[in-house]
Amino acid sequence: MSTDAPADPSRRPFAGSANPRAGREESPLPTADAAYWEAAAASFDDEPDHGLRDPAVRAAWAARLRGWLPSGPAAVLDLGCGTGSLALLAAEQGHRVTGIDRSPRMIARARAKLAGREAAFLVGEAAEPPVGERRFDAVLVRHVLWALPDARAALRRWAGLLVPGGRLVLVEGRWGEAEPIGVSAAELTALVKPLAVRTRMESLVDDPALWGKEVTDERYVLLAEVPGGEAVVAGAGAGLAPPRG
């Protein structure tokens, strides 16, 4: 499964425990089905915020990552990495990236995209990353929680993969008008707060460059720092910086 919501997220179900619609059988497409993401791999990067082929879209995501990830070289785990577009930006900023996706075709494309860089990609489940005893300075997850069967359990697992003072970087949203799907910022904040010493939420609605178009639905990032004292993430200063501008 990739890090990104599909091109038409209003057609997709939410399977996460944070959403009261979880468990309904009305959805026409299986978000968590591995075959779906295998089939999607060939055209996945055609979406502006997936492939980041537009220089303006790419620059917008690169700027955001600089503010969300540690300022110095860090170990970053990208869960549901898809074809590796965000992993590539993180690697270009000096980070050591490990990407996980359940789709072998997505992983093959990510490996090709980051060939020669300090990055590793593994086929596996985002909810249970196959990283053994490794620990990371940051766990980056984009548009994955909304498709997981147990968001609360996944968040606990991800927090446990962080070094003391490490951070979760969770890009999520809620789409659709009549019957919205996804995870609202309020829902996700409530799930994360028991795991974190501090959190910060930024709306991503007012930056059309991130999506290659104007958007009106809820899109945001939630940054959460796990316990670890004053020395937070390697090279990250004294914790989460205040929001930009």
UniProtKB/TrEMBL annotation:
Residues 1-32 are annotated as: Disordered. This is Class I SAM-dependent methyltransferase. One of its GO terms (molecular function) is S-adenosylmethionine-dependent methyltransferase activity. One of its GO terms (biological process) is methylation. It comes from Streptomyces sioyaensis. Pfam families: Methyltransf_11. Residues 77-170 form the Methyltransferase type domain. Keywords: Methyltransferase, S-adenosyl-L-methionine, Transferase.
